[in-house]
Specification:
single chain, mainly alpha, 7 helices
């Protein structure tokens, strides 16, 4: 592949977006009509990808990154669902964690602040390969993301709109 191939690929993607010809929407994201449901669907999709990555791969960086994203999307779902906020109101990662902490969704446990502190300290180091996560951290992050997502979905009484259970049933 040369520079011409890269330029052609950029032009192809630009053209697809400009023409609105991006193809069929991913099944798990096709039904969402509200801003909150889009965030919920993204969290479910990221967790689904984590489940797939756990089966026979050692792609720990992707599992950790997707787990961080799933946690943030789950929090953002709750905030958009339960308040007058819109997804576009959250310009930084910190805003999402601070807002969810302030609303007491996790009671007085400090869970969002603790996850945000961990995110602030380690996410970029892992993403930019300063720190290399091992299997145990990847599994731990995935399990944390699943626990947070399940808790938020239950707290918002949104089980009927979360498709994670359906995905679990189809996995094994």
């Amino acid at each position: 592949m040369g520079l011409e191939d890269v330029v052609d690929a950029v032009e192809c993607v630009e053209s697809l977006l400009a023409d609105g010809e991006t193809g069929p929407v991913q099944d798990s994201l096709s039904w969402q009509e509200t801003d909150a449901d889009v965030q919920l669907g993204k969290a479910c999709a990221m967790l689904g990808t984590c489940r797939q990555l756990r089966s026979g791969t050692n792609n720990y960086v992707s599992i950790v990154e997707l787990s961080f994203n799933a946690i943030e999307r789950s929090f953002q779902f709750y905030l958009v669902e339960q308040t007058a906020a819109e997804s576009s109101d959250f310009r930084t990662h910190e805003q999402v964690f601070e807002d969810i902490e302030r609303r007491g969704v996790f009671s007085d446990t400090g869970v969002p602040a603790r996850i945000d502190a961990f995110r602030s300290e380690h996410r970029a180091r892992i993403y930019y390969d300063v720190d290399r996560p091992g299997r145990d951290l990847a599994i731990g992050m995935y399990e944390l993301a699943e626990a947070v997502h399940s808790y938020v979905v239950a707290f918002a009484n949104a089980h009927s709109r979360c498709n994670c259970e359906q995905r679990h049933e189809n996995e094994f």
